[in-house]
Amino acid sequence: MKQLFEIALLTAVPFSVFAEGQQSAGLPQMDISTFPSQIFWLVVTFSILYVFMWKFAIPNLRNTIEERKDKISEDINEAEKLKSEAEEILNKYESKISSSNYDAQKIIADARNLSDEYIEKIKKENEIKIGSLIEESNMRIAEQEAKSKNEIERATLETIKSISSKFIDKIPSDDDIIKKLN
User: Fold this and answer.
1) Is 34 left (phi over 0), alpha (psi -120 to 50) or beta?
2) How many Å apart are CA 12 and CA 6, to the nearest integer?
3) What is the pTM of this model?
4) What are residue 31's phi and psi, to 5 degrees?
5) How far apart are CA 73 and CA 81, in angstroms?
6) CA distances to 105, 158, 168 from 161, in Å
7) I need a labelling partner for 22 at 20 to 30 A (CA). Which of 33, 41, 112, 115 fits?
8) At what angle do helices 35-52 and 2-12 cross, to 10 degrees?
9) pLDDT tens per residue, range 10-24
10) DSSP 32-54
């Protein structure tokens, strides 16, 4: 308050007393006689500007800054929420992939085991069939061999009898011929 009184007093006292011997050279704002009124209006103008800024502009700026800060914090919270949801979805996706890989490997292993069992079963069946066919073939061969042996013996006996009948009058018996051949 005391300062305002001094400013008003200085404004009231003309500075022409201080600047008696000076002549104005051209710039009116440099005229010392007008300094007190310029200072007064400067203080009044800046005071009005300060009050305006303090009452209207700064609160509006503060509100705008607070709103932006709130908006940014909401956006950050939403981004963190979305990030956590994305991580959760990624974890679910990875677990599904790993479980499907495990299931696929299990299915492949089961299929291999089944195919190996089927192949072994077919091999055993074929071995049994082949064994029975070989046994049957060996029996047929043995029968055919016995039959052929008998036919050869009979043919041999007939041949010997026919040859000996041409050279000998008395034809030997079948038993005598077989004894001689062996």
Assistant:
1) alpha
2) 10
3) 0.39
4) -80, 120
5) 12
6) 81, 5, 9
7) 41
8) 140
9) 555 554 444 444 555
10) GGGHHHHHHHHHHHHHHHHHHII
Q: Following DSSP, what letter does each residue of 44-104 receive, concatenated?
A: HHHHHHHHHIIIIIHHHHHHHHHHHHHHHHHHHHHHHHHHHHHHHHHHHHHHHHHHHHHHH
Question: Which two three-digit tokens encode residue 53?
Answer: 């800024």
Mean pLDDT of all residues in 95-102: 92
Q: Taking 60 as the threshold, does the pLDDT of residue 93 lie above it? A: yes
pLDDT at 11: 57
Question: What pLDDT, on a 0 to 100 scale, did the predictor assign at position 177?
Answer: 76
pLDDT of residue 152: 84
CA distance 145 to 41: 147
Return the structure tokens found at 36: 């007190």
Question: Longest C-alpha distance within the chain, in Å?
Answer: 197
Tokens of 22: 């000076």
In a 13 Å sphere around the CA of 19, the CA atoms on its Cβ side amount to 15
Measured between alpha carbons, how far is 165 from 110 in angstroms, rounded to an integer?
80
Residue 95 is encoded by which pair of tokens? 């677990």
Q: Sign of the C-alpha dihedral, residues 106, 108, 113, 117?
A: positive
Q: Round to whole Å and give the CA distance between 77 and 71.
A: 10
